[in-house]
Amino acid sequence: MMFGKNKDKTKDKPKKKKKAKDPKIEKLMVRLEITGMVVVGAAIVFCLFLLYQSLPGVRVKRAVLKGNQYTAAKDYENAVASYQSAISMDSQAVTAYQNMATAYIALGDTKSAKSTLYSGWENTKDEALLSNYLTVSLNETIQEINSGAATLDTVSDVVSVLELDPDNTDALSVLKSAYTAVMNRSNDDGINVIFWDTQEDSSAYSQYQGIMEKLLKVYVKSPSDGLKTEILQYLVPSGSSAWLKLSDAAAYEKLLTQAQKDLGITAADTDPSVSFLKCVTDAQKELAVFSDIFTQMDAGTLEAARDFIVSDAYKAEKALFTDEKNGVWENTSEIPVSREGIVLSNTSAGGWTYHFMDFGENPDTKGIITIWTKAIVDADVEHIQMSYEPAETNGTYYPHTEYTISYLYSNVSVNGVLTPKMNYRLDTTVYQSEGDTTKTSVGDWGGPNEWTLDFNNLSYLSKK
Question: Where are the chain's structural domains?
């Protein structure tokens, strides 16, 4: 069976004729394509620009630049706000910290400038920020010293600089200058009241102790002769006399003991802190001897004094002064003992000495015991005497009562006959503001032959 050949049908289709292109349309299309490309390109560039502007680093730079513009215009408050905005975006923006501190200084806000520089250093560890912080801090303390406004806060600021930079010679120089300005706060009588003023309830000692403890830590960590010299100076107040609240004495003793250990000072050294420590230590020891009798006398139990003045403890105290072996406790014929404070005196040759405050130095004292040290002897028997003055009543010294208790060898009226014997005597003296006094004496006080004598009338008031 024969098959015919397949015919190519495509060959039979008639060919379409191409239409002629309109030159105007082609030009328009080219222009549209070019315009589209330009628009798309511009959009891409704009998007890239927005993206760039939104980058954190760029935003930080813009905030700093804006702050700089405000600073140039002396609009420091807005400048601070701009720099703060930069820091909020990047805590590592060193320039923002620097410039913001400068703006704060221009505003007169040194405290904020210091805070900015310090926090900047903490966040970035940039040494330039730390250096500027130390410089601003020292400049502030110098201004306070020069203006007469220096306080223990000023010293504390200098110590803060040394904590960060122990070898800062400028800080040591300022610390030296601050000593005279701060550690010699004197009252009208020329007594240094840096630690305590009897007119004030509070004591500044605790702040002082905190400063000294920091200084000692700096020295232990980074010892130097210059720092040692300044610490030794600050261990004692400036001037020839100073008040110290006895409630601070134990803490002061501990501080001085630790300081001498850290600085290599011994009891044999002539440094003023050695005698000062002896005073503070001795005052507490002596006060302990009188603690219980004070309590009883305050309660009106005067009879307790009879046993106290013949005790070994009291005799030993009296003997210290009678034999002039009292050491740093100042010696007179009548030695006051009180519980609130002591007066320290600096004798250039012998170092520091002290005495307990009397009513004249501290009218608010709760009471005073007076040791009579003068040796009075009858028939080879020495008198033993002690006085007690209670606190003021109603805020006034007058009328003021003094009780004197004696153990002595004297005549006692026994059945109308004067008989010499050892006996106790109680003398009561009442002082009036006009200068008048009323005195009575009880002989053989507490004994079987007790009698009372009115010195104003020189007559017996009562007799057993």
Answer: 189-357, 367-463
